[in-house]
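So, is this right?
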Amino acid sequence: MTNGSTLREVHGNRALSTLLAYGYGSNKTFGQSKSLSNSVLNKWEELKSVPFMHTVMSEAQTVKLSYDDGARAVELAREAVESYVLHGQREHPGSMRDAFYARTGAFVRIQSTRGRGRLRGCAGAYHGSDQLGHAIVDAAIQAASADSAGSEIGSKELSDLSISVCVVSNTLLTNDPLEDLELGTHGVAIDTGNKHAWLYPTLPVEQNWSKEKYLSLVCRKAGVSPIAWQDDDTMITLFEGQVYRERPDGGSVEEL
C-alpha cells in the first residue's frame, strides 16, 4: 500500500506531466517543452501538496446551460460541420448566447444514422482557454476531419448524421476511479506522461460497459496496457457535463 506522502509525490509528478502535456508555460505540447517556466513549477508545487484522496481541478469556468443553450450548441456544431465539409471554411459563432462566453471544455460527437450508427468522428477537450462557442466550432471541425475517425465526412453524409455536444462543467483528478466513476455521468481521460486519451461520457451506458471495461478501453485508446489505470504513475481525470444531441429520427434536440 502506498503511503500518503508517496501518493502526494505521485500526484505532483502526474500533475507536472499534465501541465506539460496541455501546454502550460510552453509553446509546445505533449511534454516536449525544453524548459519549465516559473508558472509551471509553482503550479507543480501547489499540486504536490494536495492531501491524499482526490483533487478537484477547477481551471474551467463552471457553466450551466439552459435547454435553449444546449439546442443552440448542437445547432452550432452542425453549422460548423456543414461549413467545413461543404466549403472548407471555419464557421464563426457570431453573436453568441451568454453561456457561450464561458471558458470551458467541450466535445462534439458525430454518428451515422444509417445501419448500426457507426461513429464518424469525436473530438474536443475537457478543459480549454477558448470561449465555449469557439471550442464547439473547433471540436466539430476536428470531429468531421479525417484525423478523427479515419475518413473525412463527405457532403452526401450530412443528412444522415446525428451530432451531440458535451459541455464540460466539472473535472476530477482521482486516485480511486472505481469508487469515483459514475457511469453515464463521467467521461474518462487518461494521462501516462506521453500517452493521452479520453472517452465520451455516454458510451458506457450505450454499450453496457462496466466501470472496469470503460477504464480498460480508454487505456487501449491511449495505446497502453488495459490495466494501466491501476498504476500509480497513471493519472485519471473524470469529467462531467451536459450532453445534448440531435434525435436520430430528426426530431428536436434532447438532453441526455
Q: What stands out?
A: Residues 1-60 have pLDDT under 50 and may be disordered. The beta strands are 54-57, 106-112, 119-125, 161-174, 186-191, 196-199, 235-245, 254-255. Residues 67-87 form the longest helix (21 residues).
